[in-house]
Specification:
- The chain is α/β, with parallel strands linked by helices and 244 residues long.
- The chain contains 10 helices and 6 strands; from the N terminus they run βαααααβαβααβαβαβ.
- The protein has a 6-stranded parallel beta sheet with strand order 3-2-1-4-5-6.
- β5, α10 and β6 form a beta-alpha-beta unit.
- α1 packs across α4, α2 packs across α3 and α3 crosses α4.
- The radius of gyration is 18 Å and the shape is globular.
Length: 244
C-alpha cells in the first residue's frame, strides 16, 4: 500500500478523506481563470480611463477562490464601482454584475475547450490517497468544475463534487466560509475533523481554517507561502508530490 504522506508536524494517519480544491490544486486552470478575468476587466475598464487599470495582484486580492459573481462585486468595489445585479442568466453583453460574470465564463470556457492537463504531482498525490483507502471530493467555487474534471480526465475519481452550482442550489455561502467543505464532508459521510482540505487560494485556506477540519494543506501557486500560512494553512508545499 502506498504511503500517502511524509510525517510533517501533524499525524496524518487519522485522516479519512482529502477534500481538494480544483483550479490551481488539481488542474492549472487557475491560470486560465486569471487570463479570463484579465481579459474581462481590461475590456470593461477601457472606457473608464479615470479608474486604475486591472493589475495582476487584483486576482489574488479580490477574486481568487471566490464564487464568480462575488469576484466581480469585490473587484468592482475595489475601484469604487457599483453596477446593477441583473438576473443570473443575464446576457454576457450587459454591463451588470451577472452580465460581467457570464462574460468571464464564456472566455474561460473558450480556453478550456481545447483540453486541460492536470498537475502531474497532484495526480500522483490523488492516486496515493485512493491507494491508501481515503475518500476524496472536489470543492470548488467554479460552476465549471464538472467540465474541467472531465477535460482533465479526472471525473471518474470523484463521486462527490461540490461546485458553484451545488452551493447555489443548497444555499451555501462560498469561500472563505467553510460551508461548502463541510457539505462535502457530510456527503462523504464523515465528520469534518477527519477530512484534510487542500487549497491554493487564500480564501480557500481561510475556509478550511474556519472549519473544524483535520488540517489544511496550502499549495503555493503564486499566493505566497507565508500568505497561505497566515491565512491558516497547517503546511504549505509547492507541489503535492512533496507529500508522497
Amino acid at each position: 500500500m502506498t504511503e500517502l504522506l511524509k510525517p510533517l508536524d501533524t499525524d496524518w494517519a487519522t485522516a479519512s478523506a482529502i477534500l481538494f480544491d480544483l483550479d490551481g490544486v488539481l488542474t492549472p486552470t487557475a491560470t486560465v481563470h486569471e487570463r479570463a478575468w484579465q481579459e474581462l476587466f481590461d475590456g470593461f475598464l477601457a472606457s473608464r480611463p479615470e479608474v486604475p487599470a486591472y493589475r495582476e495582484n487584483d486576482y489574488f486580492d479580490h477574486i481568487d477562490g471566490k464564487p464568480r459573481f462575488d469576484g466581480v462585486r469585490d473587484f468592482l468595489a475595489s475601484r469604487g464601482i457599483v453596477l446593477p445585479e441583473g438576473p443570473t442568466d443575464e446576457d454576457p453583453t450587459k454591463v451588470t454584475v451577472q452580465g460581467l460574470g457570464n462574460r468571464k465564463n464564456e472566455v474561460f470556457n473558450d480556453i478550456v475547450s481545447a483540453g486541460v492537463e492536470p498537475f502531474p504531482g497532484s495526480v500522483l498525490f490523488l492516486e496515493a490517497a485512493l491507494d491508501r483507502g481515503l475518500k476524496v471530493a472536489v470543492v470548488s467555487s467554479s460552476r465549471n468544475a464538472p467540465a474541467v474534471l472531465k477535460a482533465a480526465g479526472l471525473n471518474g475519481h470523484f463521486s462527490v463534487v461540490v461546485d458553484g452550482v451545488v452551493a447555489a442550489a443548497e444555499g451555501l455561502p462560498g469561500k472563505p466560509n467553510p460551508d461548502t467543505y463541510e457539505y462535502a464532508a457530510e456527503l462523504l459521510g464523515l465528520p469534518s475533523e477527519e477530512c484534510v482540505v487542500v487549497e491554493d487560494a487564500v480564501s480557500g485556506v481561510r475556509a478550511g481554517h474556519a472549519g473544524s477540519f483535520h488540517s489544511v494543506i496550502g499549495v503555493d501557486r503564486g499566493a505566497g507561502r507565508q500568505t497561505l500560512l497566515d491565512a491558516g494553512a497547517t503546511h504549505v508545499v509547492n507541489d503535492l508530490k512533496e507529500l508522497i
